[in-house]
Known about the structure:
By secondary structure, the chain is of the alpha/beta class. It contains 8 helices and 5 strands, in the order βαβαααβαβααβα. It has helices at 17-28, 35-43, 47-54, 56-69, 87-96, 106-112, 126-143, 155-168; strands at 6-10, 31-34, 75-78, 97-103, 146-149. The radius of gyration is 15 Å and the shape is globular. The model has no long low-confidence stretch (mean pLDDT 96). Magnesium ion binds at residues 17-18, 36, 78.
Amino acid sequence: MIKMKNIYLIGFMGSGKSSVGKSLCILLDCDYVDTDTVVEEKNNKTIVDIFASEGENAFRIYESKVLREVPFENCVVSTGGGIIENEKNVEQMKNTGIIVYLETSFSKIDERLKMDLSRPLWNQNKQKKKELFEKRIDLYRSCANVTVKTDDKSYHDVAAEVVSYIVGE
Ligand SMILES: Nc1ncnc2c1ncn2[C@@H]1O[C@H](COP(=O)(O)OP(=O)(O)OP(=O)(O)O)[C@@H](O)[C@H]1O
Ligand SMILES: O=C(O)C1=C[C@@H](O)[C@@H](O)[C@H](O)C1
Ligand SMILES: [Mg+2]
């Protein structure tokens, strides 16, 4: 079996990292890790509960630890929206794979996450969400090897576009 570099999907909440990741790992027939899911499984708590009982900093420590434990090859990794806020996380993703930024507009994310209560940093006023979005855009752009716009595409189409970039690498 030919081994491939990891593919790390980054982007804001609701950009489709988890949805695209599942589709992508089927297309590439490789392993799959969703860092948010692993944090929840390891702690036996939802992300909402971790934020409420231990705070965001504790979540960030769990998240970085999970990233460090991901195998160094053959995985599609759907990351959490804030993983790029820690430079060491970015360094590790750069060293072990290709970073794919799923670029999505704020208005599209707002539409997708309208009823969502499972993301503590989305569950705050619109001004704060917008500020977080603006603050992170440059971080996502600066560390990405590949950027795929998602606004008017299904997540299957986004996954297929990622494959076309990877095959062309
Ligand atoms: N390309 C798309 N078209 C339409 N809906 C989408 C698309 N991508 C994701 N969604 C929807 O948006 C919601 C959030 O998607 P998803 O959980 O994959 O985002 P995420 O980037 O993993 O978010 P988080 O950073 O919080 O983990 C889901 O309801 C999903 O079905
Ligand atoms: O953007 C963020 O900071 C987050 C995104 C989600 O994937 C989760 O990692 C958590 O809700 C925090
Ligand atoms: Mg996700």
